[in-house]
Amino acid sequence: DKGYLNFNNFNVESTDPTINSTISPDIQNVKINFYGPVELSDGNLTIYQLIDNQPYLRQYITKSSCTVSIDGKTVIAKILDSTFSVSGGIYYIKMDNNFVRDKTYKESLLGIRDNIWSFNVKQKEVPFAPSMNGLLRLTPDAKAIPVPRSRLTSDEKNQLDLSVNEKQYLISIGVEETRVDNDYLSVETVFNNINTMVKSKDLTLINDGQASKYLDQSYGFIRTLDLWKTYKYKLLSIFLIIGLLIVLFFFARRRNSNGNNIAILQLGLIIFDLVIDITFVNYNAKDVPVLYFPRYDNFNFHLLFFH
User: Fold this and answer.
1) Which of 137, 176, 236, 279 could be disulfide-bonded to 219 (CB atoms 3.0-4.6 Å)?
2) Mind telling me which residue stretches traverse the membrane in this protein (predicted)?
3) Do 3 and 12 touch, CB atoms closer than 8 A?
């Protein structure tokens, strides 16, 4: 029997992708074809990546992410964008016993064991992309987030998120740039993967981590603004005003070297400082209530995104 020889399972006729095939990293779903009509039950599909012959979890697939064809013989499971992101990698899918059951007799069917339904992901060229920063939001229950810096970087900047009623903090995470001649994921891919994994954390290993489970699923991973592109005209205006004050100072000093010419520069800087202070109080004072720095007990960065 073809199904039994391939899958050690009399009920499975074929799968897509097939065993030992090479697939695109951009596939949106996988399929399991059964000999007879089935219906979804309580088991899961689990996707692993093999690294040095060690399996690493990439995605849980529950029945809520699956559909059954009209004839009842094909189960279609949705794949997250981040699941097959490591091109050139070796993956396999495990099917739990009782993932499906016979539609007629309501009997649970056997699954597919580890390392049986395995396949490769096609190599994909990694384009250059500059480093970028993004924001993750902690849930209200998050008190401490242990994070190693070997995976991602942090600029240690944290702030209170004023867009929600509960006290929740934003933490800034940086993704280092990559180039075509290395084996790492592109910055854009890493960024999108983190966003997908956080938003779907109940289907990924993020939900299993002591730290990463406190990342807010509704927030995802938000790209921060490029400050120079956003504020360059305001910054140029500030530099222009300061430059003008310096020019006026030297002009007055040249005309009357004995006068109190420094007062011109001091007055200009005092007015400038007053304007900046008022602007801060009006727009940003709530970011730092009572001018304190957000504090976490034993705050270390340890996000379990990659292995």
Assistant:
1) 137
2) 233-252, 264-283
3) yes
Question: What distances in angstroms separate CA 130 from CA 11, 15, 203, one per listed residue?
Answer: 49, 39, 29
190-235 per-position pLDDT tens digit? 777 777 777 777 677 666 655 566 676 667 777 776 666 777 787 7
Q: Mark the ranges of the chain whose per-residue pLDDT is less than 50.
A: 1, 4, 141-151, 292-307
- N-to-C CA span, the chain: 38
Q: Which residue has the tokens 């007990």?
A: 297
Q: Which of 86, 57, 69 is nearest to 29 (CA)?
A: 69
Q: CA–CA distance from 157 to each of 38, 160, 293 (Å)?
A: 52, 11, 9
**DSSP character string of 73-96:** -EEEEE--TTTT-STT-EEEEEE-
Q: Give the Å distances, CA to CA, from 46 to 3, 68, 97, 156, 203.
A: 20, 18, 12, 35, 9
Q: How far apart are CA 117 and CA 208, in angstroms?
A: 24
Which of these, 166, 202, 165, lies nearest to 60 by C-alpha position? 202
The residue behind tokens 């005209």 is: 233
Task: Enter the tokens of residue 244.
Answer: 């003008």
CB 32 within 8 A of CB 111: no
CA distance 193 to 185: 10
